[in-house]
Design a protein that fits this description.
It is a single chain. The chain contains three helices and eleven strands. The protein has about 180 residues and is of the alpha+beta class. A hairpin with an 8-residue loop joins strand 2 and strand 3. The protein is globular.
């Protein structure tokens, strides 16, 4: 029987079970998920938070992670700077990154979401405003959302993946998981 785990990955945790590259131990999934035989379906950067799916089914893992299936991934993104119509239009049409153009994104400005406190906290600058976006993409390049927002002049301060397809983070505290 296929197992699917929905995990709220905290900031600073690697999306893998071991850390062979670092001489100092960095937090990994092994400190959060104690189910044998499950593996991440896709990745979430160490400095990003939110929904990470894990499964013991290779086919399901490929379907979730492979961009060919265009599974929507929705992020709550805190950006630095003033969000204007031009930046939103560029994101909606797709932006050109150093590895080519992105697919169009769905994006909207939102009120600051009711999220958990991040440790360490996001840096704030009194002279530069910050805003929140809800951004949905259907591909998954390395650090794509961060690179997209930077390309339109809105550096990302905090990035929380809220959903993948129909699976959401709703009700999961950082570092906790449930079976899906």
């Amino acid at each position: 029987m296929t197992r699917l785990v929905l995990l709220n990955k905290p900031y600073g945790v690697l999306s893998q079970f071991t850390d062979a590259k670092s001489p100092t131990a960095r937090p990994t999934l092994s400190g959060l998920v104690d189910l044998p035989g499950v593996y991440p379906a896709g990745r979430l950067d160490r400095d990003s938070e939110g929904l990470l799916l894990l499964t013991d089914d290779g086919r399901l893992q490929a379907r979730i992670a492979d961009p060919r299936f265009k599974l929507p991934k929705t992020y709550l993104v805190q950006v630095e700077g003033a969000v204007d119509d031009s930046a939103m239009a560029r994101l909606r049409h797709g932006v050109t990154l150093n590895d080519g153009p992105t697919r169009p994104a769905e994006v909207e400005a939102i009120a600051p979401p009711d999220l958990w406190r991040r440790d360490p906290p996001v840096r704030f600058r009194a002279t530069i405003p910050d805003h929140w976006l809800r951004l949905t993409i259907r591909e998954g390049r390395n650090r794509q959302v961060r690179r997209m927002t930077a390309a339109v002049g809105l550096p990302t301060l905090r990035l929380v993946r809220w959903s993948i397809g129909d699976w959401t983070l709703d009700g999961l505290a950082p570092g906790t998981w449930r079976l899906g």
